[in-house]
Predict the structure.
Amino acid sequence: MEDSEAVGFFATRAVRARGEQEAVATVRSMIVAAWTTGKYASWNHGVAPTVRVEEVWQSPWFRNIMFNNDGHVFYPAEEAEDEA
């Protein structure tokens, strides 16, 4: 991954919200803030990430008490994408 460019990332976040739209907006704000002004800003040499939400679900409050809303996994460009 050191010699390749990241084309995406996967992250999981837990938020309190009154509904799915509010949850998505909150998570998008959290991720964009982390990448533009937060601890990852110095690593980001491109534009702010585009966030696509794949799934939203409700979970019991006690399940998220100790949840760490941080971290992500990058994935690099596929070989075919690198050559294009």
